[in-house]
Amino acid sequence: MFDPYLGKQEGLDFVVCSLCGYKGANITRHLKREHGGAEGYPGKIKSDRCVEHLSAGANSSWDVRGRKEPRDIGANKTHKEHGLTEDILRNLYIGEKLSDAKIGERYGITGEGVLYFRKKFGIATRPREKVNSMA
Ligand SMILES: [Zn+2]
């Protein structure tokens, strides 16, 4: 199994899309393509190294031209299908009254990711019911 991010550090060398688990040094493009844009995305979009590189110029071993990010291979392979469709999300959130975090757990994404999808699908946040004893 080929993992270009093996041994690399999350946040520093790459970031992980909190909506689907896609990894990249800069996931702006990914967000645009897979999730309709980076707007409202609840996480980090560029790795520190990527940001550093952009601001400091070409002072790292990272060469801009030579290194073809595995965009074509990666985009589809790494993109995890979480299967959280609008219907399912609606059912879980409104029907089963699960929290974003719980739904995220089931689908391998973060609660923020679920929130993002809810906003996208126009599923309003539940009015806060009686706060359970969840410290
Ligand atoms: Zn994604």
Task: Give a brief rundown of this model.
By secondary structure, the protein is mostly helical.
Report the biggest beta sheet as strand number plus sense, adding barrel if it closes. 2 strands, antiparallel
Please give the alpha-carbon distance between the first and last residues. 41 Å
Helix content: 25-40%
| Number of distinct helices | 6
Strand adjacency order, main sheet: 1-2
What percent of residues are in strands?
under 5%
What is the count of distinct domains? 2
Walk me through what this model shows.
The chain is an all-alpha fold and about 140 residues long. It folds into 2 domains: about 15-75, no CATH class; about 80-135. Helix content is about 40%, strand content about 5%. The protein is built from 6 helices and 2 strands, in the order ββαααααα. The chain has helices at about 30-35, 50-55, 70-75, 85-95, 100-105, 110-120; strands spanning about 15, 25. A two-stranded antiparallel sheet has the order 1-2. The longest helix has 11 residues, at about 110-120. Mean pLDDT is about 80; it is low at about 60-65 and about 70-80.
